[in-house]
């Protein structure tokens, strides 16, 4: 990897024994062991399995943040080493990998994570060993309901539910909405929260049905949606789920006035897959190239340009979530070292708790539970195969095309 020391999952036995002997000899001669100045950061992400696409996107954002820091001399003059681990989209593997990073690799902090079933076990481990963990993508309210001083995350459920609810009520003027959602903790809470919020605003939700990860055929669920007679269908599924769902809706139109999916639609790769058939769909995002927090346009462009150069592809909201989590961890470490402190778990966690920085995704500061105070998504509609911000009004770059939405 360029600009960052980055190690993979499975060091072989020879290297392990060599490293042991090296440490045995040089441990008595700390002046010779210059690598002791290196700051180790652990990352656990789904780099294989059914969540590999989004896990890889998060990893790319984290890696770029570490490489950028090393290119500028590291953190307070100390070089960074990113140790990345694959949780294979499995909670037990995530737990084992995080434990190995903490106990054997002795990382100073943890970043990464996609979906709460993978993030949750790692957050508990972080508390047990007093190692700060900044999760890149986590929503389940229960993870921060009890104060865990070592767990922070850069996304929160209300930052998605409330914009979607207000858009459906104020702009779309929905009367009846249907919700299909993935049976993960975060997506389930999203569906329950959205239903409750919509009903409080007078919008009927006659159908709310869940499906399992990797669901191959939505025809029976879509039949139920048709029978419910809704104006708009909201999907709490991910990228692959929404591709299948939209294609099946095109094969058998239900007379919907709109389709909205917080996750999966607002991606360049999704637009490439569907082509013109994506036009009219609604999605949400916290960031995308050209969709950035007011005042961060140059910062956002610089990130986009560097990402394209480094990885040869477009960044997206998920890669920005990874980047933001790493930037938060690095900023906290810098704060500790610049104050002549020692990088203990307690010191870094306290620095994270007092953090207040502005990045392309917005202002980042954590509340007493480790949730981001200012996290907020915008609603976009695909028009001419481009993402157009249609809500909220103060950030809108265009207006809703209702004729496209029906299409």
TrEMBL record:
UniProt KW keywords: Amino-acid transport, Signal, Transport
Domain (Leucine-binding protein): residue spans on this chain: 38-369
Source taxon at top rank: Bacteria
Statement: the UniProt record of this protein carries the keyword Transport: yes
InterPro entries associated with the record: BCAA_transport, Leu-bd, Leu_Ile_Val-bd, Peripla_BP_I
Record has Signal as a keyword: yes
Family of this protein: Belongs to the leucine-binding protein family.
Protein name: ABC transporter substrate-binding protein
């Amino acid at each position: 990897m360029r600009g960052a020391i980055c190690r993979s999952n499975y060091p072989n036995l020879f290297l392990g024994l060599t490293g042991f002997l090296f440490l045995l000899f040089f441990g008595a001669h700390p002046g010779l062991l210059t690598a002791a100045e290196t700051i180790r950061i652990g990352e656990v992400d789904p780099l294989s399995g059914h969540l590999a696409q989004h896990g890889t996107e998060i990893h790319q954002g984290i890696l770029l943040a570490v490489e950028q820091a090393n290119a500028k001399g590291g953190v307070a003059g100390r070089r960074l080493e990113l140790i990345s681990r694959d949780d294979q989209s499995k909670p037990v593997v995530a737990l084992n990998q995080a434990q190995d990073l903490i106990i054997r690799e002795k990382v100073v902090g943890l970043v990464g994570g996609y979906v709460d079933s993978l993030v949750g076990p790692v957050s508990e481990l972080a508390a047990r060993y007093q190692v700060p963990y900044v999760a890149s993508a986590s929503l389940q309210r229960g993870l921060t309901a009890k104060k865990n001083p070592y767990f922070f995350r850069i996304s929160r459920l209300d930052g998605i539910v409330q914009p979607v609810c207000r858009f459906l009520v104020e702009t779309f003027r929905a009367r009846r909405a249907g919700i299909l959602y993935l049976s993960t903790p975060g997506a389930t809470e999203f569906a329950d929260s959205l239903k409750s919020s919509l009903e409080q605003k007078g919008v009927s939700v006659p159908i709310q049905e869940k499906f399992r990860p990797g669901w191959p055929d939505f025809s029976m669920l879509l039949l139920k949606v048709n029978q419910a007679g809704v104006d708009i269908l909201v999907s709490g599924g991910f990228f692959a789920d929404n591709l299948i769902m939209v294609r099946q809706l095109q094969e058998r139109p239900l007379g919907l006035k709109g389709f909205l999916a917080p996750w999966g639609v607002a991606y360049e790769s999704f637009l490439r897959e569907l082509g013109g058939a994506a036009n009219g769909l609604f999605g949400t995002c916290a960031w995308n190239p050209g969709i950035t927090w007011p005042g961060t346009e140059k910062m956002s462009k610089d990130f986009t340009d560097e990402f394209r150069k480094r990885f040869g592809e477009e960044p997206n909201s998920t890669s920005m979530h990874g980047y933001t989590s790493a930037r938060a961890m690095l900023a906290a470490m810098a704060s500790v070292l610049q104050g002549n402190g020692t990088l203990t778990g307690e010191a870094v966690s306290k620095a994270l708790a007092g953090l207040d920085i502005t990045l392309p995704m917005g202002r980042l500061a954590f509340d007493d539970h480790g949730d981001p105070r200012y996290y907020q998504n915008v609603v976009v509609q695909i028009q001419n195969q481009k993402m157009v911000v249609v809500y909220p009004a103060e950030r809108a770059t265009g207006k809703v095309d209702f004729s496209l939405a029906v299409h």
